[in-house]
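Pilot study result, target chain (563 residues):
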Amino acid sequence: MKKTIGAIYFIIFLTSFSFSDTTVVAFNSVHQSFGSLGNYRVVTDTISFPESNQQYAEIIMTVMLECPGGGCDPWDRKANIKVEHLNNWFEIGRYVTPYGIGCSWSFDVTDYRSLLEGDVSLRSFIDTWVQPGWLVTISFHFISGVPENPFTVVRNIWNYDYVVYGDTTNPVDIAPETEYLPMDVTEVNLRMITTGHGQGNTENAAEFSLKLHDIYMNNELAYVHNFWRDDCEYNQCSPQYGTWQYDRAGFCPGDKVHHQDFNVMNFVSAGDTVRLEYVLEDYFNQCSPNNPSCVDGITCSECSYNNSGHTEPNYFIESQLIMHTESYHTNADTYLSFVEISGPSPTVDIYMENYVPVYGIQFNILIDLLDGIEIGELIFQNGQGGRAEDSGWTIGVNDSGLVVGLAQGTAEPIPPGEGLLTQIPWNGNIQSNLSGTIHFSDVQISGYFGTELSLELGEPVNIELGLGVNEDITLPLKHKLLNAYPNPFNSIVTIPFQLISSQMVFLKIFDLNGKEIITLVENDMAAGRHNLKWDAGNQSSGVYFSVLEIGKYIDTKKLIILK
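Predicted structure:
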């Protein structure tokens, strides 16, 4: 079922840059357990977050565990919280339950702001196998203010729930990953969340064994990953039962798991690609049923796993690229959009951003929502120019608007990057009464060996022609504050925005302390795109913010004055 925002105090002051905090209660004492009541180790629900979180400086997730009737699960269990975005699941917090008592923790999830907007599927997992289980409450606290990094990209890298460690019959296979860094990226971190599990093995791996794993970036040893926790005895969630004080590989019972961030831009620049490798320290588990030389009572006390004192050594690995950028970028593998048609144009221009190589493209340009022309009168021709042609591709287009990208010769993929994909000639520019919308459908973009790549599509293009082709205008499909230019700037900056209909518009400038500097507009304005100039000649160098308010719509953009 769909949850609604538990408590929203969203007050917009038109005369000052001030917003109130918002709390979203996602799960409220949800019983997670396993037994006669059913399997509730995993609970998933749809949560309604604010449609935009640009007005919030921080997002804090709080997880609280309480004991149901009959008591809490007496064991330490690995657990995490994930959200679904563009058909992919992203871990935003991990913890290990305490031995038999309740506790709570807070996670700073601000870097996941691009995943926490609108209706989102949220999943809570606890690896419990007993009836008492836990009562789980998960809340999100949106703290008002100006975000330090309003644009954040999150890319999954390695996601392994169970990597067997030290078994030659089941070797570790963590594949290298290559990712593109957008041209306007300002900060990139490889976020690692690794915990070791299993005991009673050689060196008591992997839970109680300190192992160091290597992180390579572009074939160079970049970092050594030491995730050992030597502070478990200081855990505030205490006293507990069991061995909670003992040091462990990446976790402590009754505590959240601390991620580690590794700076990628020490090894690669914006607009380039980075090849990432995660190499586990060499290890062989002699106390394994798969080791033919293991003898009970001699090699180890017991060679077979028994689900209690001797369990298979393994790692629970999650990793992401966290990228802060100056403008919006997708979290998907690929982003496809029409380039805005600013006048009668002889071509339909297609833009593509892709973090990974693209091996195949197919989509339809839908014209069924266009008026003023019979579909059979609209003619498309094969694409030309752009990144597709640079990669030796042919972009074939039939009369119905079906676009197919074909690699020629050596069949090289389109490498990771961003920019114009192709230009498709058409005769729409000579149709004086053409109006309506063109958009994509049936989009298929494939990666290596035909793997399906995740995809986000840009907004459809709305075209309306008046009495002649020189009166062409493009009407936006949503309110939007666009990126100012130039930015940074010395004294004068242009601030563009778009309206879907005539509205009362407020556009104001604030400094870093939230003080209003100037109101640029406070009037009714017509639908379409507008450009306002701000002469900041009397302002000092520093960071400022433009704030656009249109009814309930609010958006902010960072401006930088350099003198």
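One observation from the pilot: The chain has one helix and 40 strands. A full batch analysis is planned for the follow-on phase.
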